[in-house]
Amino acid sequence: MKARVKWLEDAAFVGQTESGHAVVMDGPPEGGGRNLGPRPMEMLLLGTGGCTAYDVVAILRKQRQQVVDCVAELDAERATTDPKVFTRIHIHFVVKGRDLKPDAVERAINLSAEKYCSASIMLGKVATITHDYEIVQI
Q1: Are 112 and 100 contacting, i.e. CB atoms less than 8 angstroms apart?
Q2: Which residues pair with 6 in a beta bridge?
Q3: Where are the alpha helices (DSSP H) in the chain?
Q4: Which parts of the chain span the membrane according to its record (predicted)?
Q5: Class for domain 1-38, per CATH?
Q6: In the chain, where the domains are located
Q7: Residue pair 74/49 in contact by the 8 Å Cβ criterion
Q8: CA-to-CA distance for 14 and 5, rounded, in angstroms?
Q9: Backbone φ, ψ for residue 81 (5° rounding)
């Protein structure tokens, strides 16, 4: 996997992925930025949410669960001194579907957290990661 990050101006950078996608990242005005895009650490948190939500949906589909929506809401804390790594991340899943089995949802989340989600497993080396879920039956 390859990526490229190019400085634009001030605290703004554009990141380009090997798959051909681009995103602008920027800092806050007090850090010399203009708030044109998410901060790099926000991107890391979003990537973690995307990674684990993808897993949960894929696992539920393999279990033939009728999932129609999955939202991962992430709440993180960072160290107060440099390097300001994530110290705690909580992921709250809201899974919506028809006749969803709670044990299937819990199993999917646990499999993602313990085996499949590279991002959360990697961040789990420095941060305490917890999760919970709610099921919305439709």
Answers
A1: no
A2: 14
A3: 40-62, 102-111, 118-123
A4: none
A5: mainly beta
A6: 1-38, 40-137
A7: yes
A8: 6
A9: -120, 160
Q: What are phi and psi of 17, to 5 degrees?
A: -95, 160
What's the CA gap between 59 and 66, in Å, rounded? 11
The count of other CB atoms within 10 Å of the CB of residue 8 is 13
Over its length of 138 residues, how does the chain's per-residue pLDDT go in tens digits?
A: 999 999 999 999 999 999 999 999 999 999 999 999 999 999 999 999 999 999 999 999 999 999 999 999 999 999 999 999 999 999 999 999 999 999 999 999 999 999 999 999 999 999 999 999 999 999
Residue type, 132: D
Give the CATH fold of the 40-137 domain.
GMP Synthetase; Chain A, domain 3 (3.30.300)
Q: Which of 13, 56, 14, 4 lies closest to 32, judged by CA?
A: 13
For residue 129, the model assigns a pLDDT of 98
Q: Residue type for 126, please? A: V
Going by C-alpha positions, the residue among 63, 128, 49, 51 that lies closest to residue 92 is 49
